[in-house]
Predict the 3D structure of the following.
Amino acid sequence: MHPNKVLKILITDDDFHNRQIFISQLEKLPLLFEIDEASDGKNAVEMVVIKISDTNANYDYIIMDYQMPMMNGQLATSTIRQIEQDKNLDESKRSIIITWSSSKTMPFDGADAIISKPLIPSEVLDIFSVK
């Protein structure tokens, strides 16, 4: 990853405190970020639609909680993947979607990786070396 690249990140979790913890961990990293927040899966999908419409690219990374009101993380992830496909975004303009879960199982369908809740700081840097 280029050290001067500004990573565009969408953090999706219905718990404001969880989003703030993740942001505080990001701020400790030697990377540049633009961070947006979504309070549920439906809000995340809406933000993705706007991002793609405005820039013809999705976020670099989307951190997606599973259990949320309105639309859970699994449904939001599959909806986002369908939007990317419908818009014919090439691979470099698609998001890396990371499942954020308290149960260290598998990332849900369409997600690229999983990180744990509570957040383990070493995992944060690891996920941003993917793109």
Summary: The first helix runs from residue 16 to 26. Residues 78 and 129 are 23 Å apart (CA to CA).
